[in-house]
Amino acid sequence: MSSPVRVEVGPVSRIVLARPDKQNAMTAEMGRLVSEAVATLNASAEPRVVLVVGEGRAFCAGGDFSLIEENSKKSPEQNRREMVGFYSSFLSVSRLAVPSVAVLHGATVGAGLCLAMACDLRLAASEAKLGANFVRIGLHPGMGASLLLPRLVGPAKAAELLLTGRLITGSEAERIGLVNLAVPRAELDARVAELTAELTSAAPVAVAQVKETLAAPLLGALDAALEREAACQALDFTTADLREAVAAFREGRRPVFVGS
């Protein structure tokens, strides 16, 4: 069986989410492999930039629903502990030693959007769908969404997107500052190549210093945000609304939430 995450080491390195049959939905194994990929890249002198990409038609559809279903059977304390570790493994991309670029060619949803937001830069297909749809499945935002999204789009727009769970296009994401650039899918690879050429031609030591300077405030606040999100999600996993979301997903219908 092929690995659900691959790492390719070179001047332009890549972390590849490789579970295309599941739209690269996130599992605990994938989180561990992403964390290992970050360690591998940080131990190498080759990388000048790291692209984070997804195979198939989606970048990442968020947490795997089978994982969500499993969590609904665990105690809140167990979920709280495990969710902090789950978040942190994927968000390790924020600790890459060189600039990271998320390439969002398709759906980028929930925790998948958080993975993209943890990268330094984001390029998207204008027609791609992006969103933090946690409340649409009965969950408090997780994976750092409550910190990462306001940092990029401001508190008012972040509140709108987090409270509604609305999906937006790549074009709209560019307009509000969620992504750096959105272009038609057919043009995306060329624009990624242009950006990587710019990044790899800049002075490596200075680039690494700038990256570290910009990341410091985020990394300083991240642990507290993840603890809060994990505590909230741990309670959400016990609710009837969460069970309804899982059932609706399995049955291919819209969930009907009752507030319990």
Overall description:
The protein is an alpha/beta fold and 260 residues long. It has a single domain, classed as 2-enoyl-CoA Hydratase, Chain A, domain 1 (Alpha-Beta Complex). 51% of the residues lie in helices and 16% in strands. The chain is built from 10 helices and 10 strands. The strands form 2 sheets. Strands 1-2-3-5-7-10 form a 6-stranded mixed β-sheet, sandwiched between helices. Helix 1 links the parallel strand 2 and strand 3. Helix 1 packs parallel to helix 3, helix 3 packs antiparallel against helix 9 and helix 4 packs across helix 5. The termini are far apart.
* Average pLDDT reading: 97
Structural class call reads alpha/beta
The unreliable regions are none
- For the terminal residues, how far apart are their CA atoms? 40 Å
Please, how many domains?
1
Beta-strand share of residues:
15-25%
Relative helix content: 40-55%
- Specify the CATH class: Alpha Beta
The topology string of helices and strands comes to EEHEEHHEEHEEHHEHEHHH
> Could you give the count of β-strands?
10
Report the principal-axis shape. globular
Q: How does the major sheet shape up?
A: 6 strands, mixed
